[in-house]
Amino acid sequence: MTKDELWQATLAQLQFQISPANFATWLKNTYILDKKDGAVVVSVPNNFSKEWLENKYNKIVFKILRNLDGEIKEVGYAVERSARQKEPSRPSLAEQGENQLEFQELRVDKSTNLSPRYVFDSFVVGPFNELAHAASLAVVKNPGSVYNPLFIYGGTGLGKTHLLQAVGNQILKDFPQKRIRYLSSERFTSGVVSAIRNKNMDSLRNMYREIDVFILDDVQFLAGKDKTQEELFHTFNTLYEKGKQIVFSSDRPPKAIAALEERLRSRFEGGMIADVSAPDFETRMAILKTKSQEKNIAVPDEIHEYVASHIQRNIRELEGAVNRLIAFFKLNNKIPSLAEAKVLLRNVIQSPSKFATPKRIIAAVGEFYDLKEKDLIAPSRKKEVVRPRQIAMYLLREELKSSYPFIGKKFSGKDHTTAIYSCEKIEKELRDSESLVEEINLIRQRIYGG
Ligand code: ADP
Ligand code: MG
């Protein structure tokens, strides 16, 4: 076997062991540079691929190589300068045509509400979403039997909708006879409202009860909507008893959804709950590279690094950055320089307003608990306000190192002892309550990411 054949055979096997997005990101433009005395050196285009391969994939790469050639004892990776970024070329007409086709395909299917854009192939997996991804794949393999319901939660722009839709798309592909329905919670609600108004609840119920895979996105919006919750509860029970798969998403775990009927909460909690959190730096790089590659533009690493180090908590914003780079490329027919990219991305990159300020913290807490800011600040002793207020005080202390008198003053001139009491109380609770830790992290995501 020549070096090239050996590597082709290795890649062919690797392809089955890692996700297509990771494969495309880390293994594109790699080849065997050298093979001598049982040592193989793989050429990789940049340091990120090198690190990633060394740290994450070295074991499987080595195993495959060794199976193919028993002489091989070790494998290393080298960045070969001459193999670096070739001049980017403008997409050919054929490619542009392809893009248009892609654009047409983006239409959402009317009966399932699934968009062909959201598939597992384009979903980058890292430690921050591994569990949710694995649970989704398990559901796809055996709809209705392993994790039912599957409940995925996490902050905005972190891939919940993408995963939910990918579950739907994949099941549709593997089990074409299954009836799948993806719905946003707003749509589910408006369906219930209009069925009540038009007095055709029965037909709505029958329609939902015919479904094999029911996917409901952003269920936090059902908070306080009693009639809708009741309908969902009955729909859930019918589907569940028939062994149909149900998938939910929310921006917070079930126990943190206020104004949710207890019986529905316990249904949400009855299956598998998995979270998605913010991606680490390596995965942010992987996502940027995947997105640039999807669009056929060769963005230099330094720009990706710049974006990945400035946009940290929201994958949607990472995508927004890539789209700006693409727009520049189309307009000017050249890849922007780092300086140009910085100007281009000024509005997307975490601006100072994305840093915590007292105002942002109070707004985020209010939003999370569905309270008006003025109620949060006012001196009310109502239970549903007291605790969020304590959390807001705690966050002012933690995130901004605000003084206790300052914190007291922010909340209609409360005494500094109230601020101390609140912060200590929350701190103490945090030691025993994982759910509170989670809750506060979700609020942090809003402060910095939203
Ligand atoms: P959410 O529903 O959690 O607010 P979305 O699923 O809408 O977030 O994701 C926001 C954008 O980021 C989408 O365009 C999605 O395709 C993209 N995205 C999210 N997670 C990933 C991922 N792990 N890999 C690739 N793209 C992702
Ligand atoms: Mg979403």
CATH homologous superfamily classification of the largest domain: P-loop containing nucleotide triphosphate hydrolases
Distance between the termini: 53 Å
Tell me the overall shape.
globular
CATH C-level class of the largest domain is Alpha Beta
User: What is the radius of gyration?
Assistant: 25 Å
Tally of separate domains = 4
- Quaternary state reads single chain
CATH fold-level name of the largest domain: Rossmann fold
Query: What is the succession of H and E elements?
Result: HHEEHEHHEHEHHEHEHEHHHHHHHHHH
Task: Write the CATH architecture name of the largest domain.
Answer: 3-Layer(aba) Sandwich
Bound molecules: adenosine-5'-diphosphate, magnesium ion
Largest sheet: 5 strands, parallel
Structural class: alpha/beta
What is the average of the pLDDT values?
87
Q: What is the total tally of β strands? A: 8
DSSP helical segment count: 20
- Percent range for helical residues? 55-70%
Major β-sheet strand ordering: 5-6-7-4-8
Any low-confidence stretches, pLDDT <50, length ≥5?
83-105
Strand content: 5-15%
